[in-house]
Amino acid sequence: MLRVAGRPQGDLEDRHSGFCAFPRIAPRLRALRYLVQHLAMTQDKHGCHSDISARAAEILADLRRHTVIAEDDRVTALDESHMMYLLELGLERRPARVLEIGLGWGFSASAIQRLGCVTSHVIVEIEQGSPRALQGERNVRATATARDALQFLWGDSSVILPGLYASGQQFDLTLIDGGHRFDDVFVDFHFSRRMATARGVVLMDDMWMPSVRTVASWIETNLSAQWTRLRTPPEASICAWEYLGTADRRSWDQFTPFEVATCRPMQDRD
User: pTM for this one?
Assistant: First the structure.
C-alpha cells in the first residue's frame, strides 16, 4: 500500500471546522491524497485480476488434462478464450446459483464446478442418452467439487425453463448454449432473464451465428433499460449481459426496430 510521508492530517487541517492552516497547500494536498488513493486502488485491482487470471489458467490446464472429449470436437469444445472468460468471470463474481442450457461434453459445467462457490448448479440438456451427453455427465461428475449441488434436467429447455420459473428459481449466472435456431435462443433468454438475480449475468455462446446475433441485437435495442452488455474478448464468440435489477416498464405494444449486429467485437463498437 502506498503511503504519503509527512505529518498527520490534523497538523495541517482542523478536522472539525475544515479550516486549513495553509490554504495554498490544501488543494494540492487533497489532489495528492486522491492520486495516492487512486494508484493504490489500481495496484490492488491489477494485482487481483492477475491472481484471477492465473487461477483461471490453472483450472483450464487441469480440465484439459482430465476431460474426455471426442477428438473431432476438441477444437470447439476447448476454446481457450471462451473458457478463460467464463472462468475469470466466475472467479471474480462468485455466483452461487448457476443455470446451464446445453451440456455438450460438460467442459463448461466442469469449469463452473471448479469455481468453489456454486451451491446450486442446474444443467438442462435435451440429448438424454446420447454418447456425448453420457460422457458429458461423467466429465462433470468426475470433476465436481459440489456434487450435492448438481441437478441434471433432461428434456427440451422450452418445457423445462417455464417450470423452473414457475417454481421461483433464481440464478446469478446463466449460460445459453442449447438449441441454436433463433426461436430456441430467444425462448431460452426469455425465461433466463426472468430468473436472473440483480447483477446476474447471462452468457450466450456462438455469436458467429446470425440466429444468436439477432437475439443479442433485440436485447440491446429493446431491453437496454434492464440489461447492459459486458465487454468480452474479441476472439471469443460470446456475448454477456448483466441484469441491472430494474423492472420492465415497457408499454404493452413496445417494439424498437433493429438491425442485426455484425461479428464486430464489443471493444470496437461505439
Answer: 0.79
